[in-house]
């Protein structure tokens, strides 16, 4: 197909499935590069339409696109959106049983599916690699591509497996996408993804409708209330921790603002309900941690407030960018004071505890679950950091960062807010089960269904399919859960209800003391990179001369840009210029009146005015002097000139 034919075909796909007549800026360039078989890194700001950049070309090529993304909630959302458009798609992520994964991979290899979404830890599994050779892969898509770079703010070791995937599929083009990547990170992404030829397509990061406002205030609560009252429409308020999240929502409600809160500590249903209420406008302001926002497509957010200073420009730019996606005037407000700066700098040491401390935490996690040396590989540990720190008397922040650092070193994978499926295990013998007189006849049917459908259920807790079992028993899912709970009270089963929790997946057997691989060089490099980003954020909030937009654009490598004219720095500068001009006009009035009325006695000519005031030394043009003179004559402060 020729170039123009490809373009027309791409537009037809865009129109058919998304209803758009044209691509957004840069989308067409990315689609064209992908269709030409090139590896391409696309950097588009939040809300820039990244998904279309790989979904359109994938629908124009035979086979299935592999989409690697670390965000399970976003993965599920995108699969649902594709299926709703009659595009066959499926996903594989942590929390699925081996049977479910096997079925999904079988469908991907032999079914008529166009997209397979994968969490990165699945790439190196034997099961995936076995099916990979049977798949006709059209594209390798890497979402949140900055996660592959150790220079990036959100490095994830599992992303490094994508390089191995490229070796297995050397001729399959790569489409890598991210919203934020500094120049050094962009180069690192392309190198780690083994680009055959480096190709970076980057949209301009200007958001002309977004006003960046930074306010230094000791009364941040008052400032927050002023913003919520002064800016009409929907808003988001970002805070660093869950407790403050709940407190600020209560504070806003007490001030007459419709507000709710959202963080990873809430149950899945509660989070879903709160998000839905906010999206439809029933809740005006959502106070949240950074758990809220990924994949939320709400175009009419009028303001985003950061109550705490983020620790990186990347995180700030992405979160602030959720305001004003509809192109209308919106505000990104950052509140800070001296205590924020002290806290940020203290966080640097907390975020990178000593390697001796990190290894100690490594062993304590294994001890908590009774895992001996040379055992544990493949285990999934439902982990509660509050219980862990209480048991061992550890500081929660230090322990959390140690656990995350161990993940960076590749010893385990941490999945926060992962869906845990319902599991059941019989605690009575199979023969004894037939002698039990259940108080509800449906329990007997349920027990029989459990025995028939789940091997191993008498030996260990197995994951069950609640919907299938409910259909077998003839009840709704809530009733099924009640029956399971009642059977557990009868000491027939062990019932572990569905939940959302942090899960640690052990990638290796427990190592002996002093054998845990922790590189001092990498530790120092990562800490230095973190401190550099943090100090950039501090410079941003303390900046009083450079346009906020230009500051951020320069950080992301866009050196040529104009002042935005609408941030607090630009507005202050404009106000100063207006004040200076006003002062200058007053001085001109006094000079003219003194010269005409006192020195010249009211008799003067226009040539004399030009000779006296229209000179390079005056600093003002003759036109401005004459305008002031006309005003003085019109108001009668000086007589008209002669000649």
The number of helical elements comes to 25
End-to-end distance: 78 Å
Arithmetic mean of pLDDT: 88
What would you report as the Rg, rounded to the nearest angstrom? 32 Å
Short synopsis of the structure:
By secondary structure, the protein is α/β, with parallel strands linked by helices. The chain has 25 helices and 19 strands.
What can you see in these coordinates?
The protein is α/β, with parallel strands linked by helices and 643 residues long. The chain contains 25 helices and 19 strands. Strands 3-4-2-5-6-1-7 form a seven-stranded parallel beta sheet, with helices on both faces. The chain has a six-stranded parallel beta sheet with strand order 8-13-12-9-11-10, with helices on both faces. A three-stranded antiparallel beta sheet has the order 14-19-15. α5 (98-110) links the parallel β3 (89-92) and β4 (115-118). α2 (27-35) packs parallel to α3, α14 (355-368) crosses α16 and α23 crosses α25 (622-634). The protein is elongated. The termini are far apart. Mean pLDDT is 88; it is low at 616-620.
């Amino acid at each position: 197909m020729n170039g123009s034919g490809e373009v027309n075909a791409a537009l037809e796909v865009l129109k058919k499935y998304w209803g758009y007549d044209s691509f957004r800026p840069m989308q067409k360039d990315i689609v064209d590069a992908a269709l030409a078989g090139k590896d391409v890194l696309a950097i588009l700001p939040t809300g820039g339409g990244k998904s279309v950049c790989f979904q359109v070309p994938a629908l124009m090529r035979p086979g299935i696109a592999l989409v690697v993304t670390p965000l399970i909630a976003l993965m599920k959302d995108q699969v649902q959106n594709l299926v709703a458009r009659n595009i066959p798609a499926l996903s594989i992520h942590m929390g699925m049983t081996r049977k479910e994964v096997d079925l999904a991979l079988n469908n991907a290899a032999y079914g008529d599916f166009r997209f397979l979404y994968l969490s990165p830890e699945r790439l190196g599994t034997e099961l995936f690699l076995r099916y990979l050779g049977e798949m006709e892969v059209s594209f390798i898509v890497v979402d949140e591509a900055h996660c592959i770079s150790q220079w990036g703010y959100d490095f994830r070791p599992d992303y490094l497996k994508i390089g191995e995937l490229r070796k297995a599929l050397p001729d399959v083009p790569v489409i890598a996408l991210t919203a934020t990547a500094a120049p050094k990170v962009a180069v690192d992404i392309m190198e780690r993804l083994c680009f055959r030829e480096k190709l970076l397509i980057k949209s301009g990061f200007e958001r002309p409708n977004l006003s960046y406002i930074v306010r230094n205030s000791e009364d941040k609560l008052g400032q927050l209330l002023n913003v919520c009252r002064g800016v009409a429409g929907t808003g988001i308020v970002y805070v660093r921790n869950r407790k403050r999240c709940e407190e600020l929502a209560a504070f806003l409600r007490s001030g007459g603002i419709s507000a709710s809160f959202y963080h990873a500590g809430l149950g899945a249903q509660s989070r879903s309900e709160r998000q839905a209420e906010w999206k439809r406008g029933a809740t005006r302001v959502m106070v949240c941690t950074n758990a809220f926002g990924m994949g939320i497509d709400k175009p009419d957010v009028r303001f985003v407030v950061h109550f705490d200073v983020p620790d990186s420009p990347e995180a700030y730019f992405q979160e602030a960018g959720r305001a004003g996606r509809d192109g209308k005037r919106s505000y990104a407000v950052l509140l800070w004071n001296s205590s924020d700066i002290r806290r940020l700098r203290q966080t640097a040491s907390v975020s990178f505890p000593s390697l001796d401390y990190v290894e100690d935490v490594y062993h304590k996690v294994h001890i908590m679950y009774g895992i001996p040396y040379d055992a544990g590989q493949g285990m999934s540990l439902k982990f509660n950091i509050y219980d862990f720190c209480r048991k061992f008397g550890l500081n929660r922040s230090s322990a959390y960062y140690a656990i995350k650092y161990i993940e960076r070193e590749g010893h385990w994978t941490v999945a926060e807010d992962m869906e845990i499926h319902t599991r059941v295990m019989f605690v009575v013998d199979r023969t004894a089960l037939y002698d039990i007189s259940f108080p509800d006849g449906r329990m007997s049917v349920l027990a029989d269904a459990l025995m028939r459908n789940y091997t191993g259920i008498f030996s260990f807790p197995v994951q069950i399919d609640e919907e299938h079992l409910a259909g077998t028993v003839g009840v709704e899912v809530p009733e099924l859960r009640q029956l399971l709970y009642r059977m557990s009270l009868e000491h027939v089963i062990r019932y572990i209800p569905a939940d959302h929790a942090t899960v640690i997946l052990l990638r290796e057997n427990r190592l002996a003391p002093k054998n845990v691989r922790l590189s001092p060089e990498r530790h120092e490099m990562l800490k230095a990179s973190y401190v550099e980003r943090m100090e950039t954020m501090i410079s941003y909030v303390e900046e009083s001369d450079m346009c906020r937009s230009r500051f951020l654009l320069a950080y992301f490598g866009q050196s040529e840009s104009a002042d935005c004219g609408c941030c607090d720095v630009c507005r202050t500068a404009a106000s100063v210029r207006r004040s200076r001009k006003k002062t200058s006009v007053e001085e001109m009035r006094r000079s003219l009146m003194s010269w005409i009325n006192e020195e010249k006695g009211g008799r003067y000519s226009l040539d004399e005015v030009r000779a006296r005031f229209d000179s390079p030394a005056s600093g003002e043009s003759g036109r401005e002097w004459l305008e002031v003179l006309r005003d003085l004559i019109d108001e009668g402060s000086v007589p008209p000139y002669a000649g």
